[in-house]
Specification:
313 residues; alpha/beta; Rossmann fold; seven-stranded mixed beta sheet; five-stranded mixed beta sheet; 12 helices; 14 strands
Length: 313
């Protein structure tokens, strides 16, 4: 792994560059401009920044109106507020109207830390992937965010990006390390026994777990399925049958996230393979810092390793 950086700093830099290239881009915030690291954007483009206050549903409605008038709005709030409080407006005003609003949900899952269970979204991917024509993805670090954000902007439909805004261990040394493309999985490590499919904040833990499994004699591959919708079905078709077991690891409920999406593929295509979903087990979050929360939720490296050892055994 490499040095940690704050992803929100890179997000702001990338947004400023995009806005310089496309005058249609506007930012709509719900009193979290500073938390999102977007103060520099506000200073650079004050006439294109709108803070609606703590009114998430109104934010989504305003963004729909701006998009209907030809703008390219980016809206942001914490992921549970985005997918719970503003859901009706996202579904009806944005998605049903087929408007290209870019939806950013920050601090997903355990990354909300001491804000506690009310701020921890373990269901947001399940909610958003159920909306027709909604692209859903989560970068794992600065480089992947820089590579995927411009692609998100280019899509003429609504998109949802989970944003881990704090410091993230670097998986990719630069956006050019891999051929990033929304909807296409990146194979990060090869192996012959087990395939771990992960994304976002726990991808780095999956890589570390694979190293421990290799040392224990279980040759483990790791893939970054950064886009949950549309799912890379070609990758699944070409890889599911190569391994003794397939495991998904995600900072989300085991229900309706990546694990469910992969399980749907396996079931519908009659693929015979040992399979396990590692994620949050039908529960709410709690107050704590990341190391404690990951262990409590079964998402730390040790828990991932033990779950896979039990599956293979």
């Amino acid at each position: 792994m490499f040095d940690s950086v704050e992803v929100r700093v890179a997000y702001c830099e990338e947004m400023i560059e995009l806005a310089k290239q496309d005058e249609r881009i506007v930012l709509v915030e719900a009193d979290l401009c500073r938390a999102a690291g977007m103060m520099k954007f506000k200073e650079e483009f004050p006439e294109r920044t709108f803070d609606v206050g703590v009114a998430e549903a109104n934010m989504a409605g305003i963004a729909a109106g701006l998009a209907a008038m030809g703008k390219r709005p980016f809206i942001h709030t914490f992921s549970p507020f985005m997918t719970h409080r503003a859901l009706d407006q996202i579904v009806v005003s944005i998605a049903y109207a087929d408007l290209p609003v870019k939806i950013i949900g920050s601090d997903p899952g355990f990354s909300a830390e001491v804000n506690g269970g009310t701020h921890m979204s373990f269901d947001d991917i399940g909610i958003m992937r159920a909306i027709p024509d909604m692209t859903v993805f989560e970068p794992c670090d600065e480089a992947s965010m820089r590579a995927l954000l411009p692609q998100m902007h280019a899509i003429d439909k609504p998109c949802y990006m989970r944003l881990f805004r704090k410091k993230a261990e670097t998986v990719y040394t630069s956006p050019n390390t891999h051929d990033f493309k929304i909807g296409k999985c990146n194979m990060l490590k090869t192996g012959g026994d087990v395939l771990i499919i992960s994304y976002g904040a726990v991808l780095v833990d999956s890589i570390k777990a694979a190293a421990e499994l290799d040392a224990a004699g279980i040759n483990t591959a790791v893939a970054d399925m950064h886009t949950i919708k549309p799912l890379d079905l070609d990758f699944l078709a070409g890889n599911i049958g190569k391994y003794k077991a397939v495991v998904t690891v995600e900072n989300h409920s085991v229900m309706n996230g990546l694990g469910s999406a992969v399980a749907e593929y396996i079931a519908e295509n009659g693929r015979a393979v040992k399979f396990k979903r590692i994620g949050v087990q039908d529960r709410f979050g709690e107050v704590g810092f990341r190391p404690y929360l990951q262990q409590a939720l079964g998402l730390d490296v040790g828990s991932i390793v033990e779950d896979i050892k039990c599956l293979v055994k």
